[in-house]
């Protein structure tokens, strides 16, 4: 019996490590990705020294992961918020992927720590998408009804887990034994289920969107990918290919900046979803083996966060719209910085996601293009809707970066 209590920071660190072990066991290529990332990071550190740690200590970067999960209903999203809340991860940003190319029938947010010291301790974040089941551009009335019935009948998170999560959030910690139980239950909820998949139902949803099938065609959820952070994504991409791993055809996000120039925003790439064994149930009740390709491996390189002004320039003109030094990015209010004691500019890391890249990541791993009818009415979904569903604050990324810059007494 131990009387030690476990706080949110430690719960988050342990949760991230447990999910990493789980995913490594399920998707062996993830292990290769982590290994190659660490190899590249060690080399960048040896080559660039202190400069390599401008965007975070090597300890932070080595432990850093983002995950992605997908849920089916507002109620499920609210429950996810409680589990992550116990780990000091709060919803930041609203992303609508329905208007992306190709359209994906989800809206998303990212759960992450929001305080600088919490990000430094462990920045684990999870891109979380919820299916928009009542969007007529994707689902006809009959399918909507069936989706509501199917999703309404499933239970992703056991009551004991949610009670422990609420207690952890209320008290700021859990006693040792309860913390172990919480971590065990929380991790188990994101494992790939051995339950047979109803073949016809899955196929019908897949004809609309394989993301819809991955969410609404099964009775559980799972980690879709887990992403290590790398300090040189071009080098990583080349090495993964050299090891014979099939990567998507490009790196998403801004192109590489010339040597010595600050990295901006977020660059991402992934290896293609692998065929994983799953069991299928036919309408006659018989169960037979098959495979599904839904889970993949992604890697990311993070740079300085852009201000709304910097982001508008980047969106309109790409990197050509931005100056190439920290001093100019700061002076023109295009990127966020704080200062160290010596007065040197320190970049504020971009901690969020890019909707265009997210759509690209989704799309590059879809089987078939899917189907949507732009002429039909959509369903109203925005940040206000999501805030109401979450029953808690939905943070605006720019407000967080502004506050950090102001606290660092570093206004342009
Ligand atoms: C999420 C895709 C988006 C990212 O890093 O932009 C994403 C998903 O596949 O569920 O993870
Ligand atoms: Ni991702």
UniProtKB/TrEMBL annotation:
<comment type="similarity">
    <text>Belongs to the 2-oxoadipate dioxygenase/decarboxylase family.</text>
</comment>
<keyword id="KW-0408">Iron</keyword>
<dbReference type="Pfam" id="PF07063">
    <property type="entry name" value="HGLS"/>
</dbReference>
<protein>
    <recommendedName>
        <fullName>2-oxoadipate dioxygenase/decarboxylase</fullName>
        <ecNumber>1.13.11.93</ecNumber>
    </recommendedName>
</protein>
<dbReference type="InterPro" id="IPR047869">
    <property type="entry name" value="YdcJ_bac-like"/>
</dbReference>
<dbReference type="InterPro" id="IPR009770">
    <property type="entry name" value="HGLS"/>
</dbReference>
<keyword id="KW-0560">Oxidoreductase</keyword>
<keyword id="KW-0223">Dioxygenase</keyword>
């Amino acid at each position: 019996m131990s009387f030690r209590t476990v706080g949110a920071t430690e719960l988050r660190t342990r949760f991230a490590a447990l999910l990493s072990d789980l995913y490594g066991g399920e998707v062996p290529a993830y292990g290769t990705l982590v290994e190659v990332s660490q190899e590249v990071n060690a080399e960048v550190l040896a080559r660039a020294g202190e400069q390599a740690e401008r965007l975070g200590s090597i300890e932070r970067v080595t432990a850093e992961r983002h995950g992605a999960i997908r849920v089916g209903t507002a109620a499920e999203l609210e429950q996810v918020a409680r589990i992550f809340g116990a780990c000091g991860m709060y919803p930041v940003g609203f992303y609508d992927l329905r208007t992306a190319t190709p359209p994906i029938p989800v809206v998303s947010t990212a759960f992450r720590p929001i305080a600088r010291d919490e990000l430094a301790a462990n920045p684990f974040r999870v891109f979380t998408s919820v299916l928009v089941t009542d969007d007529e551009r994707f689902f006809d009335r009959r399918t909507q009804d069936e989706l509501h019935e199917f999703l309404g009948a499933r239970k992703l998170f056991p009551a004991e887990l949610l009670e422990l999560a609420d207690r952890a959030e209320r008290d700021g910690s859990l006693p040792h034994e309860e913390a172990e139980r919480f971590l065990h239950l929380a991790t188990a909820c994101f494992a790939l289920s051995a339950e047979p998949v109803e073949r016809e139902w899955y196929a019908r949803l897949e004809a609309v969107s394989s993301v819809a099938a991955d969410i609404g065609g099964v009775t559980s959820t799972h980690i879709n990918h887990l992403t290590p952070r790398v300090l040189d994504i071009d080098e990583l991409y080349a090495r993964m290919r050299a090891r014979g791993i099939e990567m998507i055809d490009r790196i998403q996000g801004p192109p590489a900046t010339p040597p010595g120039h600050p990295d901006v925003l977020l660059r991402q790439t992934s290896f293609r979803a692998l065929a994983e064994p799953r069991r299928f149930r036919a309408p006659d009740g018989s169960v037979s083996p098959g495979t599904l390709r839904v889970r993949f491996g992604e890697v990311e390189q993070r740079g300085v966060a852009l201000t709304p002004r910097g982001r508008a320039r980047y969106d309109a003109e790409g990197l050509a719209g931005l100056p190439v030094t920290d001093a100019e990015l700061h002076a023109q209010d295009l990127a966020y910085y704080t200062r160290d004691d010596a007065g040197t500019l320190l970049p504020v890391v971009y901690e969020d996601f890019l909707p265009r890249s997210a759509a690209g990541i989704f799309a590059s791993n879809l089987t078939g293009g899917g189907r949507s009818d732009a002429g039909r009415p959509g369903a109203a979904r925005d940040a206000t809707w999501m805030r109401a569903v979450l029953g808690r604050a939905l943070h605006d990324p720019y407000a967080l970066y502004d506050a950090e810059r102001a606290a660092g007494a570093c206004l342009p």
